[in-house]
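Marked as duplicate of an earlier ticket. Keeping the data here for the record.
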Amino acid sequence: MPAETVLLLPGTASDEVFVRSVFTEPLSQVGAVLDAPRVRTLGERLTALENAPAGHPIVVGGVSLGAHVAARWAVANPDRCAGLILALPAWTGAPEEAPAALAARASAEIVRTQGLTTALAGTTGWLHDELKRAWRGYGDQLVPHLEEAAESLAPTLDELKSLDVPTGIVGCADDPVHPIAVARAWAEAIPRAVLVTTTLDAYPRALGRAVQAWQRAR
């Protein structure tokens, strides 16, 4: 029997390298294979889902913005979605003043007016290394993408309630950009969701715990 393929999308201004580093091993441990497409814009994220094999329902998901896009696609394509693996949902419905949206807008303005080096100056450790690589990989698309991400819609709670598929969610108890309250609200709304939590000290590999949550939901 062929291994199950799981398509996962990166967060705002993140990339497929980060997705692979987090999810390849947890998925292999449950006999699944990761598909982490190279996408830069919102449109490319949606296209990756639309172009996924249509012969049978598939498991999809992602990190932050990637989780939003995957969940909205699942709402619109219930016959094509077999499950969801969602890490760090950042808001529900319209972004409004959500911390992640504010951060994306602020980053876009700094990159536009002061340059990439200045925008990265306030980051350290693994986050600095990840953003330095990923943001440079966006090139001229970085600022427009940060802006479009900050205005993008996540699914509403009513839409999440319609997702009757096994769903694993990982939220962070002390991440101010991705409030744990959002992850909890998503888990309460999705009928077959299992929520696991982590902390910033355990980032980034702990995000792969969403895979174990998905398995429990099954």
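See parent ticket for discussion. The longest strand covers residues 81-87.
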